[in-house]
Amino acid sequence: MNPLRVRRSLPVFVVIIIGLPLMSLETGPARGWARQDAKPTKLVIAFASTRERWDPPYPKIHFYEHDGVSKGKLLESIDTISKGVNKSRADMHPALSADGRYCAFASQLGVANGGQTEIWDRKEKKLLPLPGVHGLLKTHQMHATFSANGKRLAFTAWAWPGSSGRWNVFLYDVPSKKIVDVPKLNVGTFDQRMPALSADGRFLAFASNARGGAGRTDIYLYDLKAKTPVALPGLNSKEMDISPSLSGDGRLIAFTSDRPGGVGNRDIYLYDRVLQKLLPLPGLNSPAHEQSPSLSADGRFLAFVSERLKGAGERDIYLYDRVLQKLLPTPGLNSKHDDIDPFVLTVNGK
Q: pTM value?
């Protein structure tokens, strides 16, 4: 699967939003932060990159360690070069368990077969069997997401047997190796895509173009414990709202939107379900496209992709600290090619 290359565009205008509150006890995700109390937190970022196979571009999953301040280094990768049809396996959108051992991701074997959901054991260096998910070559699976304990796996699939045949979101119980029935999650003949599980495994966010939404594509949230949708007043716009990412308890939702009033065409936004409003992210967005946010479980760090002109490549991964309200240096993370689909994990998984 060749990633779609989007031409960069120069800014037409910049809107500065004023009057928004700074980080405070009110706006912390689960607890308040004071800037003077900010402490470095070791992070692991899983991401996809075409740096090793650019012509044609087939991404591969890499891992990167960061000290939470300004230093980082590349770790290992998931070796896929000898796999797939004509060595054309593409791995995308990783998600990590809280201990960092297991990595769920979407993988496509060649251009003819559908994508498949995988779980990689970083300790044992092997893929785990997923009966009920593997072996369905007529389906196309994408966008894997994990609960912190690695027991719940969600993904989106096209043409899943017994479904509407369009994109739908599915939940898989890893220990029992079974698809979990989630009533009223998918809506008719519309698309449900880009799922994101909260670390506690209770909440599932996704994007859908279902009729009756606020805009072209909206963010939805489902409570897996109560088995019911959750209202998100003030989150969606008349435009495109996609790519949700949840804090550990599901209170905060980071997402991408091209709504008017942002800094660029696509920007990253952060919504607080308790306060029912958007929170400020000063210094995060640019006049270029920002997309694919990943929020750490504690809500402090946001990793995302940007196409800003000063990056190392066409698309680069950036790391934002909400406590310090600034981008952190990430030496050695990006390449001259596409670096995409970040997932940020604090080492303690909290």
A: 0.88
